[in-house]
Amino acid sequence: PLEGGQGVLVAAEDVSHLSDVAQQRRDFVANVSHELRTPLTALLGFIETLQGPARDDPAARARFLATMAREAERMNRLVCDLLSLSRVEAEERIRPTDPVDLAAVLGEVRAALAPAAEEAGATLDLALPEGRVTVPGDADQLMQVFLNLVENAIRYGGRRVEVIMHPPAPEPMLRGEAVCVEVIDNGEGIAPEHVPRLTERFYRVDSHRSREMGGTGLGLAIVKHIVSRHRGRLRIASKPGEGSRFSVYLPVS
Prior knowledge:
The protein is of the alpha+beta class. The protein folds into two domains: 15-91, Signal transduction histidine kinase, dimerisation/phosphotransfer (DHp) domain (Helix Hairpins); 98-251, Heat Shock Protein 90. Helix content is 49%, strand content 19%. The chain is built from six helices and eight strands; from the N terminus they run H-H-E-H-E-E-H-E-E-E-H-H-E-E. The strands form two sheets. Strands 2, 4, 5, 6, 7 and 8 form a six-stranded mixed β-sheet that branches. Strands 1-3 form a two-stranded antiparallel sheet.
């Protein structure tokens, strides 16, 4: 106690995390604005051309309209991914508990993406363990996880894509039994300096190529948050010239 019973209490609180959150928010808004501005600028330019010089040119009109449709679809994909990411982040603390037949989910993923694989000239192989494997989860979100991973592998992963589900086994990282699903490709691989940042929003190894292939830069961020919501883990291993391996671990109880 101070003499006379009087004194001043000084308290200090570390609020640096608030500054980090604010910076992340500013970066996110800047990235979204940039991603939307590019196709919007293209659309406005084509509209202006169609209203002027190309008005009476059927060939130019058809070409410009096709490009406008692609740019509009690109914006639509971005908005859909932003909405998905927002929903997943809002629900991340609530673990889903519905029983999900993981083999059935992977079978639907293969059926949905088989035409894309054929068009890309890639084989899409699915290997499943014997017996039914059920995990607690959200079937739609798990479908999105593997659609994103397999679609990326088809786009960037060379001529062969393998999806392998291993039977449940003890997984120390999750303190219990887990099922591991691997998506493996034999593509060009990813340089090690890029791997830790692949799940960041809007991070791209090759921005130009990603946009050309229809990527939004949000797919792996969505995967990371969904897997986290399921109390699972995502591991990424890749070497230039040897392909990539994305491993999803999901607890079975």
